[in-house]
Amino acid sequence: MSNLDLRPQMSVCGGRAAVAAEPVRELLTGRQVSLGESTEVRRLLPNLGRRMIGAWCFVDHYGPDDIAKEPGMQVPPHPHIGLQTVSWLRAGEVLHRDSLGSLQTVRPGELGLMTAGRGIAHSEESPREHARFLHGAQLWVALPDAHRATEPAFDHHTALPVVTAPGLRATVIMGELAGAVSPGRTFSPLVGADLLLDAGADVTLPLDPSFEYAALTMSGGAIVDDVPLVPGSLLYLGCGRTGLPLRADTATDLVLLGGEPFEEKIVMWWNFVGRTGDEIAAAREAWMTAPERDYGTVHGYAGPPIPAPTLPSVPLKPRGRSR
Fold first, then answer.
1. DSSP calls for 27-76
2. What are the tens digits of pLDDT across the range 255-291?
3. I need a labelling partner for 318 at 20 to 30 A (CA). Which of 17, 116, 161, 198 fits?
4. In sequence order, which residues have a C-beta less than 8 Å from that of residue 128 and are 6 or more positions away?
5. Using CA atoms, how far apart are residues 298 and 28, in angstroms rounded to an integer?
6. Is the torsion defined by CA of 27, 181, 195, 71 positive or negative?
7. Residue 173 pLDDT > 80
8. How far is CA 177 from the centre of its chain?
9. Is the whole-model pTM more than 0.90?
10. Cα separations (Å) of 59 from 41, 50, 114, 149?
11. For the chain, which domains are there?
């Protein structure tokens, strides 16, 4: 998934200095961003108040959108470095193409995991014949320095482990939860899980107190640690939790994100995660002048690739991981 903001700001994220050692309840609201030709998303991370959750550095929530008479998602070829993209759908389907030659339709309950590493290009689109509704989340994971130049890869997993409790069904998308381990490849300690709560559910989910966590509300109306949430909101929960109380009066879908606080400082701009502004500038220059050399070519998408926005004229300003 691309960041199609025409004027993206360069920012420094990461580091442990601003990570609360104790539980918190920090409610974050997203901003509306156009994605491609006809898709609007709620961008929840990076946020003015919070820029990372463990290694998770980007969160978009979209839908549910009625696209029966629309083209749906149409994101032309674009580049990535230094990160993984995690595609998670609750309704609809997305056709993924990349410069490795991958061609894969990702459907609800399946993990589409792309490791950009040293560089990759991809596109995403709703198939010509598609379901009426499109609803999902697009997530990025920052790669630690030791692995950010790894070879690019795309993995598609249709069978993911499930943890159950009365009123709860948790699908482990990435990492580990309650002893269940996702087949998705990770490069730092983290977790991503889809939590389906039945109406009337009242359960406590076991957590790792060394992780920081957040809960993204996909649908319904959960009460997370006594905080009522509406769809499209993100509740940052901090560290130091051994369990998370969850309640729901109606059927509800949450995505739990967590991980060990990311110690390294990263520089994020457009679709790149690096360590310096110069590295980001070089990645942009490569996309604009010699994309085949550094990113390869995406074949089969009916349209030209996305040009990179202009870099900010102001120097890089470190902002830290929170306000």
1. EEE-EEEEETTTEEEEEEES-SSB--BTTEEEEEEEEEEE-TTS---EEE
2. 999 999 999 999 999 999 999 999 999 999 999 999 9
3. 116
4. none
5. 35
6. positive
7. yes
8. 18
9. yes
10. 10, 11, 15, 23
11. 13-259 (2.60.120.10)
